[in-house]
Design goal:
It is built from one helix and eight strands. With 124 residues, it is of the alpha+beta class. About 15% of the residues have low confidence. An eight-stranded antiparallel sheet has the order 1-2-3-6-5-4-7-8, with no helix packed on it. It has one domain: Immunoglobulin-like, CATH 2.60.40.
């Protein structure tokens, strides 16, 4: 029993270490996700959402010309709102996304170069 607990502890430390080795952390206190070597942080501000986009080592990813949609699932009740660029490396919801802590969220973002990324979060 002690051996399996030790193995789980080592594995957990290795996974956590690999995340922090790349400099990934929630800079704005939101929910963090990684897709295609980019980090997406969803921040809930009074039910509205802002997504900040960075690459390894905190380099900002340009969101000028980007757009998308945010689908929020609050216990089976879905809300879909558009995302629009709102700064050099962020997108925000246009309208009330009805974000609450624990909501399952999926963002579909299309960047100016037409690259599309799907990102999943659990809202904080």
């Amino acid at each position: 029993m002690k051996r399996s607990t030790f193995c789980v502890a080592i594995l957990s430390a290795a996974i956590a270490g690999s995340v922090f080795a790349h400099g990934a952390y929630a800079r704005f206190g939101g929910a963090l996700a990684e897709v295609d070597d980019m980090y997406f942080e969803l921040v809930n501000k009074n039910g509205a959402g802002t997504i900040y986009v960075t690459e390894d080592h905190e380099s900002e990813v340009a969101t000028k010309g980007a757009s998308g949609k945010l689908v929020v699932n609050n216990g089976g009740k879905k809300t879909e709102v558009p995302l629009q660029a709102s700064g050099s490396s962020s997108l925000e919801t246009k309208g009330d996304a009805k974000l609450v802590a624990g909501a399952k969220v999926e963002a579909t973002i299309t960047f100016a170069d037409k690259k599309t990324v799907k990102v999943s979060f659990v809202s904080k």
